[in-house]
Specification:
This protein has 534 residues and is of the alpha/beta class. It has 16 helices and 16 strands. This is glucan endo-1,3-beta-D-glucosidase.
Length: 534
């Protein structure tokens, strides 16, 4: 009650900016125009605003403890849907984003009370953009079906995923806005447009500031017209804009990037020496500066009324020298503290919905951006916490319950096998083509293993990914199954989740892409083998 009272008292009912904030909040959240609220049969602006102010204060008090997460499903042995949903609920997550319409995940989310943002993948943009009938079919199969038949609370369709990313070289630019229009039309036709709205998750590279000050923010010159048209459509149709912000990537890409500026400052700590002075505002961390650069760009083009949610933000724990549990704990604790306190940025004081990336690790995700891509989870692949976090009311993270594992056994290099055996190079390459060996990357959790440990780790990853099937620990008689845990130091030799029969071929990416990623990952192993052979 004290929190609610203090928030209510902070709302000045006679302040013009408050009226604007309330108006924007109800338009974006509930499609309600506060100026048209009827009170006791009479149109009363002041009475309506008073009631709406109370409602806003109550809503903000509830939202102050709400968390949102990205639930990726590119995994070989997925955590069962019902266990994942309970994991979300036990840890206070009431919103989730799916990158695609995964049937198991959607069915598990039915009647859960968790709101869903559902992704339409980039690969479908061209098809949906060309033909509104294709959009209608997608909405029918992936939105209407799960809303009506399973009670899934779908609130957004995320059209594409970072479609204007520079590295795509314009591949999805022409299709994104037409696809968004067609999805919106399909939602209207399905009678879902008041419940389900459209958004487009964008990478932070769609805007820039030439002098480094957020107030100088503007859209990237090559897509300015496209951005203004897209945001205008989202605004007019009641949608929101989703932006993905990654301080980790900013730091990891630039050896000279000031490390402390990537993190949220601790309470009472002096500001980073890299803080940016922008007029009367001091930006002490890259998130605030990045987000407000977008807000400034929107304001510059008369689009400042659009609601901007954070579609992805987080910190990985492995696969890179800058990716570790200590850094991830520091960043995510600072982020969660901000979310739970409702503290936004200088230009948007109320914290928006923030979808943490990610809930769980994904061992079959593409590693094109880097080997860290498979390690963004706040939780391990099995729902166990990676590090301590304080959530709402000071409580800690709760692990997943009821997880079933394969037998307690591992595949390792035979004691009598020589690391210089010519067959080992091919065996390791084969193992890592079909399993995740990114923890062997330089600076990662298993980088300290000796050559025998490296080979054993690769063998075990394949063995576990193949569900410990007979013959999956063969490797030309170089390996053996052991019941003694070979984990060493920070390197954990995993036992996979028991999901029954699993088809390794039913995964994302071509064989060539997997092979290329595998050989990149095992470079350290092969280098060690070469040293041993000398």
């Amino acid at each position: 009650m004290d929190n609610l009272t203090s928030q209510y008292k902070s709302i000045n009912l006679l302040d013009a900016s408050t009226h604007t904030n309330i108006h924007t909040y109800f338009r974006s959240s509930y499609h309600i125009d506060p100026s048209r609220v009827m009170v006791m049969g009479w149109w009363s602006s002041s009475a309506a605003m008073w009631l709406l102010a109370v409602a806003v204060a109550f809503a903000l008090a509830l939202r102050a403890e709400a968390l949102a997460a990205n639930w990726g499903t590119r995994v070989l042995h997925p955590l069962p849907g019902d266990i994942t949903v309970q994991l979300l609920k036990d840890n206070g997550f009431d919103k989730v984003k799916l990158f695609e319409a995964d049937p198991a995940a959607l069915k598990a989310l039915g009647h859960s009370g968790i709101q869903v943002m559902l992704g339409l993948p980039n690969e479908l943009l061209a098809t949906v953009a060309r033909d509104v009938a294709a959009a209608e079919q997608w909405v029918q199969h992936n939105v209407s079906h799960y809303v009506s038949d399973y009670g899934v609370d779908i609130r957004f369709v995320a059209v594409g995923n970072e479609p204007f990313l520079k590295s795509y070289k314009g591949q999805f630019e022409a299709a994104t806005l037409p696809a968004t229009r067609n999805v919106q039309a399909a939602l209207v036709k399905a009678g879902l447009s008041r419940q389900v709205r459209v958004t487009v998750p964008l990478n932070a590279d769609v805007y820039e500031s030439l002098d480094g000050r957020p107030s100088s923010g503007d859209f990237r010159p090559d897509i300015t017209g496209l951005m203004t048209s897209l945001v205008r459509f989202l605004l007019d149709s009641g949608g929101v804009l989703a932006i993905n912000i990654y301080p980790f990537l900013s730091m990891d890409a630039d050896a000279n990037f000031p490390r402390d500026y990537a993190f949220f400052p601790a309470p009472g700590a002096p500001p980073s020496q890299a803080s940016v002075q922008d007029g009367n505002v001091l930006y002490t961390n890259v998130f605030d500066a990045n987000y407000d650069t977008l807000v400034a760009a929107l304001d510059k083009h008369g689009l400042g009324n659009i609601t901007v949610v954070v579609g992805e933000i987080g910190w990985p724990t492995d696969g890179d020298a800058n990716a570790n549990a200590a850094a991830a704990q520091r960043f995510n604790q600072g982020l969660f503290d901000r979310i739970l306190a409702g503290k936004g940025t200088p230009r948007r004081p109320q914290m928006p919905d923030v979808y943490v990336f990610a809930l769980l690790d994904e061992d079959a995700k593409s590693v094109d951006p880097g080997n860290f891509e498979r390690h963004w989870g706040v939780f391990n692949y099995d729902g166990s916490p990676k590090y301590a976090l304080r959530l709402a009311n000071g409580r800690g993270v709760v692990p997943a319950k009821g997880v079933r594992y394969l037998s307690k056994q591992w595949c390792v290099l035979r004691p009598d096998a020589s690391p210089t055996d010519p067959a080992i190079v091919g065996a390791v390459g084969y193992a890592c083509q079909y399993a995740d060996c990114t923890s062997l990357s330089p600076g990662s959790s298993c980088a300290g293993l000796d050559v025998r440990g490296n080979v054993s780790y690769a063998f075990n990853q394949f063995f576990q990914s193949a569900s410990q099937q007979k013959g999956s620990c063969g490797f030309n008689n170089l390996s053996m199954v052991t019941t003694t845990d070979p984990s060493q130091g920070t390197c954990r030799f995993k036992i996979m989740i028991d999901t029954g029969r699993h088809d390794l071929s039913h995964q994302d990416g071509s064989g060539a892409a997997r092979a290329a990623a595998a050989w990149g990952v095992v470079a350290a192993v092969l280098a060690l083998l070469a040293i041993v052979a000398l």
